[in-house]
Amino acid sequence: MVTAFSRTGRRAFQAAVAALVALGLALWWLLAMGGEPTPRGSLTLATGVPTGVYARYGELLKQDLAHDLPDVDLRLARTEGSIDNLRQLVSGRADFAIATADAVATYEVRGEPGAGRLRACARLYDDYMQLVVPKKSAVRSTKDLRGLRVGVGTDDSGVQLVTRRLVEAAGLDFHEDIEPVRVGIDQMPKLLEQHKLDAFFWSGGLPTTALQRLAQRFPVRLVQLGDLSPALHRQGERTRYYRAAVLPADAYPLAQDGQAVKTIAVANLLVTTDREDPVMAQGITRTVIGSRDSIGRQVHAAQKVDLRTAVFTDPLELHEGARRYYLSQKP
């Protein structure tokens, strides 16, 4: 009985030692590899027009990714804006994109191709609606745009999506009561200077470089949009992504005369699809959150990227890779 017990005990002991050795080797491998698989490959990020905040944010994110994920080659795609970005995503022309929450919701409600495949990695910063007019303009509210030439953003942009809703909230018809000029922020400032536009709408992070430069060379003024908030939200479910906001007095000092300006804001999301590799999505999400301060020094809007709010990506559910990242950050 003693001999049989001893053999059994030795076998159990040997099995336990073997298991501990295997576990130790696994832990050593994970530590040597940085604790998790390293993303590698080529990616495309759909951003926006060259002079917008999306494009600048993408340029700086690319620099940080080159440091954090050296085996990932990121290409930036210039686009017309949020709706265009989503179409590029689902078609496979882009792997990640920046888009406003209202544009994502509209894409889903319309039943656009691939809408069900969209996933989010993070809530980024907010876009603020900005209505720009020459300083001496008589326009004091959106209602005053009747009969004027108004830059409304390109047809596939989030700018035009919000502009249409603001014009409606002001009691105007987009096609009949204004002359909509379908151009983006890369052209609107120049057209305003040349008196080919009477006003233009822009939706972007603060501050937008193109508007800063315009104010330095041409006297402009920002028109309040706060009076439209009640009527905007009466439009129903499609406008629930907008919130009342204020352009701080120092956003565009030359265009605000030291005054804060009431407006509306909408969140931006970093979007991908369910086809994206979880390891890649986790790595990209980590860099986006970690690069807040470095990018924020040049794009002030990026200072609003925050781990505590990044998970609130309504109307999209989180990508599995992004979810893994956030879970890993829990204390």
Task: Give the SSE layout.
Blueprint: H1 2-32, E1 41-46, H2 53-68, E2 72-77, H3 82-91, E3 96-100, H4 101-109, E4 118-134, E5 149-151, H5 158-169, E6 179-181, H6 188-193, E7 199-204, H7 209-217, E8 220-223, H8 229-233, E9 243-247, H9 253-256, E10 261-273, H10 278-290, H11 292-296, H12 320-328
Parallel strand pairs: 1-2, 1-3, 5-6, 5-7
Antiparallel strand pairs: 3-10, 4-7, 4-8, 4-10, 9-10
Helix pairs in contact: 2-10, 10-12
Structural class by sheet pairing and helices: alpha/beta
Order of helices and strands: HEHEHEHEEHEHEHEHEHEHHH
Number of strands: 10
- Give a quick account of the main beta sheet: strands, pairing sense, barrel closure: 10 strands, mixed
Shape: globular
Radius of gyration: 25 Å
Oligomer: single chain
Helix content: 25-40%
Strand content: 15-25%
Q: How many angstroms separate the termini?
A: 51 Å
